[in-house]
Design goal:
The complex is a heterodimer. By secondary structure, chain A is mainly alpha-helical. Chain A contains 16 helices and no strands. In chain A, helix 2 runs antiparallel to helix 3, helix 4 packs parallel to helix 7 and helix 8 packs antiparallel against helix 9. Chain A starts with 5 loop residues before the first helix and ends in a 5-residue tail after the last helix. The relative contact order of chain A is 0.13. Chain B is mainly beta. Chain B has one helix and five strands. In chain B, the strands form two sheets. A three-stranded antiparallel β-sheet of chain B has the order 1-5-2, with no helix packed on it. In chain B, strands 3-4 form a two-stranded antiparallel sheet. The longest helix of chain B is centred in the N-terminal third of the chain and has 10 residues. Chain B is elongated, with a radius of gyration of 15 Å. Classes of the chains: A mainly alpha, B mainly beta. At the A-B interface, helix 11 of A face strand 3 and strand 4 of B.
């Protein structure tokens, strides 16, 4: 090895000095002519550029927050169902997002935000064809934000149809919803956010972040699915009384709700798709409604069912969030609290109601998203800070009705078709033993003790 | 040698273990089981529906002994077989 002599140090130092001088001249070589003095026009342009970049940044970050809600859904749904179906729920959630992203890319986005001559659906922008090299890539970030919303609507249904739905049939559903049903209604209410223009938004329909567009659409699809597929085996006794099927991990359910709550700040505040001060009110409204919903649901369950059922409180927080989603930008914080409180009460009675009519919804998706999506949409009109008119309420009600008729009808027909062709439900044996082993050949919690022991037999004690 | 099985409520495990060790027993196996004895189960509610919890968590302690001696842990309900 060479010794570090004084001579060698001097040589190294000399080389470094020469290199440094050479590199220091590089910026000089590339420097433009001395920059022109700033003008009001160039300043305005510079500011606009920064604002534009900020819009991109905020929208993309918000999109990532909403993406994380998928983890929230996975945790809530597995937590509130039984362990033998955990892998199946996780796979359905994974595919809601994955297959959903692809459908929305291929077909959905164009139907929802493409140029719309009729006001009923878009006809351009499929496969992100709106992107042009010489222009700002805004379509990319807008698509990112919209795809996570579409996937949110899709994944609502997996909870209501949990523990008894055939995986292949569910995949077909998720493609159908994200490609056709969700985007078409979405185009009525939100098409104008991009290149389209819908008849509903033209009437002044208020649904800032999607109480109806996302949550009611998901909720009514869930209702159609739960209705067509029927309750889980053993869920309602011969005497008609509901038999409890408790979830297997309420810690998961809680973590899931926290993740959803977090993501909702992106869901609501991100819907500005602009980095400006309006996000502040939206965030406050979002938080207050969630908190009020959780408290109200807990108190309602406590009074009505004698105990503060944790799962009801969790549903309450989500109900509050769904409830504020439509009006988060046009109501006051005080109104948000009321909206959340009402949502929390509604969700408890809604869950009990659907049970009474024997519609089995393991996670309360129909009540949280469908029913409270409708409440939130109405509330956006009732609590409109700039004034309430019968006209405004009327349009809100019209939107609620349109969403229900469109979504429930198309999805009911779709699920019925699947049921009579390839089959919607797993066999009784599969349902009893759990979907994980039959549909996936996996165990969620790796009870492989006995298998490992057998495998170790050759290893020597 | 005789095998003694002892099924107790979980919070008594430590007392039983100590009592066994005090009489000179060095080894034991412990497993989690469910069951009911004189205590009945109870009724829980989940989202508005009632369900009975009949099988309560218990702990089974198994030891091999040369002769069986009654021991007390000082707690009621210690049912050594």
């Amino acid at each position: 090895m060479n010794r570090l002599t004084l001579r060698s140090i001097r040589s190294y130092a000399f080389i470094v000095l020469i290199l440094g001088a050479a590199l220091g001249l590089v910026p000089v070589a590339f420097a433009e002519e001395a920059a022109a003095p700033p003008t009001p026009e160039s300043n305005a342009e510079a500011v606009a550029t920064v604002q534009n970049h900020a819009n991109y940044l905020w929208t993309l970050i918000a999109a990532c927050m909403v993406f994380l809600m998928q983890a929230g859904f996975a945790l809530v749904e597995t937590g509130l169902t039984r362990a033998k179906n955990a892998v199946n729920i996780c796979m359905k959630n994974l595919m809601d997002f994955s297959a959903g992203s692809l459908s929305f890319f291929l077909v959905g986005f164009g139907l929802m935000f493409g140029v719309s001559s009729t006001g009923w659906f878009g006809t351009s922008g499929f496969l992100l064809s709106d992107f042009a090299v010489e222009q700002d890539p805004w379509v990319y970030v807008f698509w990112m934000f919209q795809v996570v919303f579409a996937a949110t609507a899709a994944t609502i249904v997996s909870g209501a149809m949990a523990e008894r739905t055939k995986f292949t049939s569910y995949l077909m559903y998720t493609v159908f919803l994200t490609a056709i049903v969700y985007p078409i209604f979405g185009s009525w209410a939100w098409g104008g956010l991009y290149k389209g223009g819908g008849w509903l938004e033209g009437l002044g329909f208020i649904d800032f972040a999607g109480s109806t567009v996302v949550h009611s659409v998901g909720g009514w699809a869930a209702l159609a699915g739960a209705l067509v597929i029927g309750p889980r085996l053993g869920r309602y006794g011969k005497d008609g009384r509901p038999r409890a099927m408790p979830g297997h991990n309420l810690v998961f359910a809680t973590l899931g709700v926290f993740l959803l709550w977090f993501g909702w700040f992106g869901f609501n505040a991100g819907s500005t798709t602009t980095a400006d001060t309006s996000i502040a009110l939206i965030a406050v409204n979002t938080n207050l409604a969630a908190a009020a919903g959780a408290v109200a649901a807990m108190v309602t369950a406590w009074m009505y069912l004698k105990k503060p059922d944790g799962t009801m409180a969790l549903n309450g927080a989500l109900a509050g969030l769904v409830g504020i989603t439509a009006g988060c930008a046009n109501v006051t914080p005080g109104s948000s609290v009321i909206i959340g409180l009402v949502a929390g009460v509604i969700v408890v009675f809604s869950v009990l109601f659907f049970d009474r009519i024997h519609i089995d919804d393991p996670v309360g998706a129909i009540s949280v998203h469908g029913v409270n999506g409708a409440w939130g949409t109405l509330a956006a009109g009732l609590f409109n800070a700039e004034g309430v008119t019968l006209g405004i309420i009327g349009v809100q009600l019209l939107g609620i009705l349109a969403a229900f008729v469109w979504t429930f009808t198309t999805m009911w027909v779709f699920f019925k078709l699947i049921a009579v062709t390839v089959g919607l439900r797993v066999s009784a044996e599969e349902e009893v033993e759990g979907l994980d082993s039959h549909e996936h050949g996996n165990d969620a919690y790796a009870p492989d003790t006995f298998r490992t022991l057998a495998g170790d037999a050759g290893a020597g004690a | 040698m005789k095998k003694v099985e002892c099924i107790v409520r979980p919070h008594l495990l430590d007392a039983v273990k100590t009592a066994l060790q005090d009489v000179g027993i060095v080894g034991m196996s412990v497993s989690e089981v469910k069951g009911f004895g004189r205590q009945k189960g109870h009724t829980e509610t989940y989202r508005g529906s009632e369900y009975k919890v009949e099988f309560l968590p218990k702990v089974k302690i198994e030891v091999a002994v040369s002769e069986v001696v009654r021991i007390r842990t000082g707690e009621r309900g210690e049912g050594a077989l």
